[in-house]
DNA sequence: GTATCATTGAAATTGAAATTCAATAACGAT
DNA sequence: ATCGTTATTGAATTTCAATTTCAATGATAC
């Protein structure tokens, strides 16, 4: 079985839901895949507009929802910030360091933290669905 | 120096800001201190109303803001949930387990996690301001 | 007592996000 | 290709939490 690309994943997902791939949805997908990570809806909307000015905010929202459903995208809600979306396909789980001043986002992963989280959940008889760890601070550039 | 009680802390804080303690603010403080933890604004408003029906939503919001400023309260923004407030005075830092089904909130603290977080931040040249760790899952009652 | 300034409640506003709706476009069956 | 069905679209509206405005009121310092 070959590795499915993002387009096929979305196609399959919408098919399963009895929906369709449309030119608009393709544009939103392309724009999303073409961005750097952690894009917000507003910025993505602007990028989408560059490719097709007739596409609405609503369609961007709706398509992002579809992308999240099929795990091409992941919604990120940092404290006090607006919702962002990052690429999820072919990306391992990770947490984030966020600079409170410039907004810079650094991804990190730590097995030990994951492990302890699972342990804590187990001790409290919780079945883990997901977790959110966000460290807010000031990055080195902003400290100079 | 004797331990200040919550009332004195608020009093001092508003004084510093050139503001005043008012009957309404006292009622909101009392209601907040009298609740269980993790109260949302709506619920607190209802509790406040029981003591003084003339107090408005705006005053509850404004007073909660004051309580957060002087660290009597802490704002909690769990993913996809409305803002909640917990008692902060005389309470150690902790993280939360949240049941996705019944909303139950369990507090926990783990030194090792804190330690690793600091290490990760240091490695990335971030000066930590705060962090937010939230584990979402299903509690034991909801699994039965 | 008076001038000053914080406080209040009601209502309006904000801002992000989601939804409604009539018009349109795509699909499957024939 | 044509038809009927059903998803999709963009514009506008709505939702919802949260905040702010504003005129009236109340407290404080002098």
Distance between the termini of chain A: 51 Å
Number of E strands of chain A: 6
Morphology of chain A:
globular
SSE topology string of chain A = HHEHHEEEEHEH
Low-pLDDT residue intervals, each spanning 5 or more residues of chain A: none
Question: How would you portray this structure in words?
Answer:
2 copies of one chain form a homodimer. Chain A is of the alpha+beta class and 144 residues long. The first copy, chain A, has 2 domains: 6-87, Orthogonal Bundle (Arc Repressor Mutant, subunit A); 95-143, Dna Ligase, domain 1, CATH 3.30.1490. The first copy, chain A, has helices at residues 6-16, 23-34, 41-51, 57-69, 111-123, 140-143; strands at 39-40, 73-76, 84-87, 95-99, 105-108, 127-138. In chain A, the strands form 2 sheets. The first copy, chain A, has a 3-stranded antiparallel beta sheet. Chain A has a 3-stranded mixed beta sheet with strand order 5-4-6. In chain A, helix 2 crosses helix 3 (41-51) and helix 2 (23-34) crosses helix 4 (57-69). Chain A is globular and about 45 Å long. The relative contact order of chain A is 0.12. The mean pLDDT of chain A is 92. Chains A and B meet through helix 5 and strand 6 of A and helix 5 and strand 6 of B.
């Amino acid at each position: 079985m070959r590795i499915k690309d993002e387009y096929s994943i979305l196609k399959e997902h919408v098919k399963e839901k009895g929906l369709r791939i449309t030119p608009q949805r393709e544009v939103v997908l392309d724009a999303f895949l073409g961005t750097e990570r952690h894009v917000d809806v507003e910025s993505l909307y602007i990028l989408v507009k560059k490719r097709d000015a007739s596409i609405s905010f609503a369609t961007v929202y709706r398509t992002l929802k579809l992308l999240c459903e099929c795990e091409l995208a992941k919604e990120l809600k940092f404290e006090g910030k607006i919702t962002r979306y990052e690429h999820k396909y072919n990306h391992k789980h990770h947490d984030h360091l966020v600079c409170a001043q410039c907004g810079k986002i650094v991804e990190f992963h730590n097995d030990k933290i994951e492990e302890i989280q699972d342990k804590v959940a187990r001790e409290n008889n919780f079945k883990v669905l997901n977790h959110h760890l966000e460290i807010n601070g000031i990055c080195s550039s902003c400290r100079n």
